[in-house]
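Sample 3 of the quickstart, ligand adenosine-5'-diphosphate:
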Amino acid sequence: MNEKKIILTARDLSKTFSNGSVQQHVLKNLNLSIYKGDFTVIMGNSGSGKSTLLYALSGMDRPSMGTITYYTDADEGKETDISAFSNDRLAVFRRDHVGFVFQQNYLNDSMSALDNVMVCGLLKNSDRKALAQKAKDLLHHVEIDEADYRKFPAQLSGGQQQRVAVVRGVINSPEVLYADEPTGALNSQNTENVLDILSDLNNEGQSIVMVTHTIKAAERGNRIIYLADGVISDEVELGPYAGDYKDEHNPKLEEARERHAKLKNFLQDMGW
Ligand SMILES: Nc1ncnc2c1ncn2[C@@H]1O[C@H](COP(=O)(O)OP(=O)(O)O)[C@@H](O)[C@H]1O
Ligand SMILES: [Mg+2]
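Result:
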């Protein structure tokens, strides 16, 4: 039995796109709960509906049918079904409860790294001074040097930009951080870097839902969900990340190897 607290439950979720007279059923009566403190990973073939599911769960887009009920901490567990919210209410909901990281960092080119984070924080927070301190602490945490706070995105490396984007995603202390292939555009060193940051955040209690198509990224999650053709095929629980399974100096090497093998077997079973 899972004794973790439920953050949200999606019931009978469907999403249909109409293309002229052709209807494409991308999500099909999908049922899913997301748990507090989990690093949930969504995998599946390209076109299986991963991004569509992430957008529906996060309130970026509305489902065609079904409900998405959040049990938000800030509202003392009050139930909030966002599936029929207007655009305005969805925007407020997203601001107050969720954060995002995408494959592209979508930073504002005409703002400094710090301002990119601040502007998002100011939507929710009026204490500018406290917010600036929090933004700087987080940027420091992701190893952005103080000398780079005032730089524009174009003056930062791709890896630095994505780290700033992660900070922006968590500046409002979201109940869930949603990430859609957050390392998809990064080289291997920057990928490690960003994944380490996500693991750190999760260790500190941040609930994360991440879509990925790489085993390396998926391994960071404790719960792996496999999506096929708009429905959940199966899922596997790996337990908390135990470090690099190839690192001889990893004190949890045995555990890391077991997790890796379990994930590989699961994906093999899924025909991945
Ligand atoms: N806004 C949209 N309009 C029409 N079709 C869409 C839209 N978004 C996604 N789709 C279609 O839905 C299917 C699933 O897309 P997506 O959720 O992006 O898959 P994944 O992220 O798993 O690769 C694809 O066939 C895609 O073309
Ligand atoms: Mg996608």
